Predict the 3D structure of the following.
Amino acid sequence: MLSIMDDHDLNPQICIIGERLRRTLAMKGFLFSQVTVLSNVKGPIDYSGLDVALSRPLDFAVLIFRNPDIERHLSESGVPFAVVGGKGELLTGCVGNIVMSSMNAVRSLARECEEQGISDIEIVSCPNPSGWFDLLAGVFREHCIHPRNTVVSLPHVEGVRFDVVKKAGFDFAKRQSAHGHAVLPQLYVVTDDFLAAGMLVGFMSMGVEIPRDVRFVSYSNGGFGPFFTKPVAKIEQNADDNADEIAKRIGDWLIRRKPFPNTYLQAKFIVGRTLRRR
């Protein structure tokens, strides 16, 4: 069993999922190995490490997360595989996709906003938000809510960018607050948990009270925050729970050859006090 990681700034979640897969499948008697494909470098993707791993006898491979180039390379190898993180094309050899979906959670958020009469919503994203605005805006529009989108620019960084993202969120919140609390929207929906962490601190430094002055919802990777003086309203994916479900699907396929249909791992909507004033 081979776990393949695409090297990018989601590595904490990738490592949690990879480790849970290793532990669960090793307990079932499978030899487990993993390899990282360096795909965020200039020039061609370096497949040398992956090719060495694929040259050994393998029963199965799992790619965390979706990368069409790596998927095509896997398809050509002849090793059966599954893809975590996206609903892509089922190439030859791909037995199924494991999709991390937030649709149900976003619908719950939209219903909550409608019930509270919240219509002035600003969605705040990092660059390349992977379709988050389209998903959120599409669901909100079903409830006659038309949010606007702000993309917070980031300086170019190499490697881990979490501190940079938090600082960008902090600066954005301070700029927004400098114009006065009255110009803030009713609700910020932030699609990056580290960006949200910086924004929450920035608002506190400017005396903005959440949720009295502005309500706040964040995307969250379980265990990574953001954390605040009040429980944060969140759309949350939990890597531990997801890894258990992924391991179960892979184990069923390897041991019982049970069909591997597209699997949807749904995020949860958690109504925290940053959204409800009561």
